[in-house]
Each structure stands twice: as C-alpha cells, then as structure tokens.
Please model this.
Amino acid sequence: MRLLRVIEGDLNKLLIFELKDRFAVEAVHYRGDTLCISTQVGCGVRCSFCASGREGLIRNLSEEEILSQYLLAKELFPIKRIAVAGIGEPLANFKNVLSAFLKLKREGLKVSFYTTGFPVSNLLTLLDMPHNGVTISIHSLSERKRKLLLPYAGSLKHLISALRKKLPSLTKKKRRKISLAYLLLKKVNDSPEELTRLGKLAKELDVGITLLYYNQVGDYEPPSPEEYENAFLLLRSMGVRVTLSTRFRKDKVGGCGTLTVDIIADTKGKEVKT
Ligand code: SF4
Model:
C-alpha cells in the first residue's frame, strides 16, 4: 500500500492510497490534528446520500491497511485523533477494525467511530471499548424511511431496543461520548414532528445529537442555513445536547459522504481525482 496523492481543499487534505490489488481508498486530514480513515473498499450499507457506498462493498480492508493510513499520513501531518468515519461500515469489518483500534490506542491516539450500528451485537461490544466517541447514524425514526436512506443497515427497531437496554448500564461520562447522527435532508426528514421525536429519543437515552449538514453528492437537497439553524434551535429548546457540522465536514474536498473508491489504471499512479 502506498500514498498515491494528496489533494488540498480549502480546509481539508484528501489522501488517496493505492492498495496492492489496485483499488484506491481515501482518508482525510482535517482540523490540524485529526485523520478520518476508511475501513472497507466500498460499503455494503449503500446509503442513498453517500458517494462511498455507490458500488456496494468490494472488500474489507486488512488490519494492516487500516493502520497504514495512519502510519503513512503521520509522515506528513501531525495526528492526535483518529475518526473511523471514512469509507465503509466499521462494524461490518469488526475483527480488523478492533485490532487496528487497539494498536492506535497504544500509540496514544484518541479514536472515535461513526457507524450505522449494524450489526448491533458489534455495536454493543464497541460501546464497552475505550473509544473517544461513537456516533450512531439514525437519520430517520421511520423504519420505512430509514430503509430508503440506509438500505442495508438492519432494523431500526432492533437498534433502538438494544440502545435502550445497553445505555443505562454505561456511566454518565461514557454516555456523553455517544451521540445519534441525523443528516438533515430538505423535505425528507426535517419536519418539526420528526425532529421532536428525535429529540425525545435522545432525551430518553441521555445522549447527544450530531445534526449533520448534507454535502450534496446525490439527489437530495440540503436544508437552507436558516432551516438548519431552526432544526438546531428546536432540538436545543428540548434540552438536548446538539453538535452541528463543522466547516471541515462541509468542505468540498473530503467532506462527509464525499469519499469514493477508485481503481488505479496504471502502475505509475494515474490521477484518480482532481
Ligand atoms: S454513509 Fe457510511 S455506512 Fe453509509 S454508505 Fe457511506 S460509508 Fe457506508
């Protein structure tokens, strides 16, 4: 595996790695000290708003390939935190992700995860690990709608019932590191009724909400800045802890949901993206 190319955005640096079988996966250096890494080549969850899952799952990354993203990137940039939030569903490649995670922890790094929570049994194991944050993608509290948004992320009902059982057993400090991700999509999941249901669930589970802004890579529309702010205010008025997308997550280069898988066409390292 080698670092093929680094693309500088306004805020982020997109790192493209070539794998031995000629596939290329991406990682993002952002906020000056954080590296967002990938765990799979493609993604079997195939979220309809995300470029990473368009081709489905091609294969899992090995433990070495997951770690190498950090080892190669740290030669160029300072890294104190790892966000396991790039291409792939970390729980679907759990054995390799877990062993890479333990090695990253031994390097003194803070490691956080973004996941759809599927398979749920792996999520429950992850929640007991010494992570620095687990953000679980909800995006809709309607089973039908969530299936359209996250086609292969399992049952929402099963996920929520597992969280209801598990979270009370965690300390308050540990619960504060868990949050529900909600990608706000105009006229899809942004009604006050839906946001109120979300707020009630977060209150009941005693976790925060990460309200994500949509980087338009598919057919959906992002909310206007005012609609985004109103959703934030509604949830805040319910007494919920809400985190908004930072400007790094919105950058055209390396922003959330924009990472893609490519095949390198020649041995010299053809440009895969500009
Ligand atoms: S959002 Fe995450 S889980 Fe969904 S397709 Fe993209 S990489 Fe996979």
About this structure: The first strand starts at residue 2 and ends at 8. The radius of gyration is 18 Å. Residues 43, 45-47, 50, 52-53, 87-89, 116, 257 surround iron/sulfur cluster (CB under 6 Å). The chain has a mean pLDDT of 92.
